[in-house]
Specification:
Layout: H1 4-12, E1 23-24, E2 30-31, E3 40-41, H2 42-56, H3 63-66, H4 72-80, E4 91-94, H5 97-115, E5 121-125, H6 130-143, E6 146-150, H7 156-159, E7 164-170, H8 182-191, E8 195-199, E9 218-221, E10 235-239, H9 241-244, H10 283-297, H11 304-326, E11 332-334, E12 346-351, H12 356-359, H13 363-372, E13 375-376, E14 378-380, E15 391-395, H14 403-419
Parallel strand pairs: 2-13, 5-6, 5-7, 7-8, 8-9
Antiparallel strand pairs: 1-3, 4-10, 9-10, 11-12, 12-15, 14-15
Family: Belongs to the kynureninase family.
GO cellular component, one term: cytoplasm
Protein name: Kynureninase
Length: about 425
């Protein structure tokens, strides 16, 4: 039986442990929701205050030049680039993940439809993040395409064929934490004549990503999860250099113009990835995001993304083992893969339908009871029609999650289940955000 002392010993040997000091974490809080919102880097408040009081307050309009505001999308993009396996000048920060997905999926469809009008299908997972599917549906109507959803990851290669235009996947599935094999699936898509669009929302900053080496065509990613950029932080997008200048993205804004300050009435797209910009960059949000990205870059001398991945797997393995050891008899089942190589940086649980908690639909209430005990995970609703259960989701962030945090979280979960306190009415009151 693993003890808390064992967890503390793992923390004592953790080479990444000093990086926790880079973050402002409330005392006594076990935060396992970094896959929804990363915690605040200590440098962020000072940096944003500096932008407000000095660059905006004193420099005013001159700061677009003097402080380099106009170059922030490329500057921060170049910092993110090595985290996802691409080169400098290939990735830009802009807009939201959803907006960027609209851009790159539209460009991919335009390229495919121009080359072969018979390619009219976008393939994805039924359990992909809903906004990705909504955008694919919307673009499908515009391009005369349909969306084909597969139920199991192993069925994806067989779904690819001569009518497939694009394979669109989130590298780490948000519901179950499964990590797709990007290289194998990109190769399968290319063999079928399709392009790939990857959503890195739950992988960038948590697992090593190698877009170029793994044959990806387009990608987008989130700034407020593992990149710690703050609520609503700008996202990023990437197009392989062989595609970047080959198609217009649909949001042809002035910042993506070849000469933004020429103020010409006609649009001329900038070369390369710069054309994927649209409007004026949100400078305050960009400043916060850069601080978050810098926390990840601080791991480079300590082993970088390889060390982050190794710790992530050790943390999630400990979580799995402890749930098995300490929470038996309550109907908990693992929705996440048990095989380490197939798991992202989260552990997802569900209650069996024949358990007391499963029959009561208790997943939401259990998460709320844990939050009341200062263990913050999150809940994701299921869909009985599609056979998807409610999910209790716990995301570990190796830069600041400790092994003792994992032990404490599972201990609190055990107590919540054994006392049955999740049955209290107060834990079933839902806010706008669940």
């Amino acid at each position: 039986m693993t003890t808390r002392h064992d967890a503390l010993a793992l923390d004592a040997d953790d080479a990444l442990a000093p990086l926790r000091q880079l973050f402002q974490i409330p005392d006594g809080l076990v935060y396992l929701d970094g896959n929804s919102l990363g915690v605040l880097p200590r440098a962020t408040a000072t940096r944003v205050a500096q932008v407000v009081s000095q660059e905006w307050g004193e420099g005013l309009i001159g700061s677009w030049n003097a402080a380099g505001w106009m170059a922030l999308p490329q500057q921060i993009g170049d910092k993110i680039a090595p985290l996802v396996g691409v080169g400098a000048g290939e990735l830009v920060v802009a807009d939201s993940t959803s907006v960027n997905l609209f851009k790159v999926l539209s460009a991919a469809l335009a390229l495919q439809r121009a080359a072969d009008p018979a390619r009219t299908v976008v393939v994805s997972e039924r359990s992909n993040f809903p906004t990705d599917l909504y955008i694919a549906e919307s673009l499908g109507r515009q391009h005369g395409c349909t969306l084909h959803l597969v139920d199991r990851p192993e069925d994806i290669p067989a779904a690819l064929g001569p009518s497939t235009a694009v394979l669109m996947l989130t590298q780490v599935n948000y519901r179950n934490g499964r990590l797709h094999d990007m290289a194998a699936l990109s190769a399968a898509a290319h063999a079928a004549g399709a392009l790939t669009v990857w959503d890195l929302a739950h992988s960038a900053g948590a697992v090593p990503v190698a877009l170029a080496a793994d044959g990806a065509d387009f990608a987008v990613g989130c700034g407020y999860k593992y990149l710690n950029g703050g609520p609503g932080a700008p996202a990023f997008c990437w197009a392989h250099p062989r595609h970047a200048s080959q198609a217009w993205q649909p949001l042809a804004g002035w910042h993506g113009h070849a000469a933004p300050f020429a103020f010409e009435p006609g649009y001329q797209p900038a070369p390369g990835i710069t054309r994927y910009l649209c409007g004026t960059p949100p400078v305050l949000a960009m400043a916060a995001l850069e601080c978050g990205v810098d926390t990840l870059l601080a791991a480079r001398p300590l082993g970088g993304m390889a060390a982050i991945r190794a710790k992530s797997l050790a943390l999630t393995r400990l979580f799995i083992d402890l749930v098995q050891q300490r929470c038996g008899g309550h109907g908990l089942q693992f929705a996440s893969p048990d095989v380490d190589a197939q798991r992202g940086s989260q552990v997802c649980l569900a209650f069996s339908a024949d358990s007391a908690a499963g029959q009561a639909g208790a997943a939401f209430a259990v998460v709320q009871a844990l939050i009341a005990r200062r263990v913050v995970g999150d809940f994701r609703a299921g869909d009985a029609k599609d056979g998807l259960p409610d999910i209790l989701r716990f995301g570990v962030t190796p830069l600041y999650t400790r092994f003792a945090d994992v032990w404490d979280a599972v201990e609190q979960l055990r107590q919540v289940l054994e006392t049955g306190e999740w049955r209290e009415a107060r834990f079933n009151q839902r806010g706008v955000v669940t």
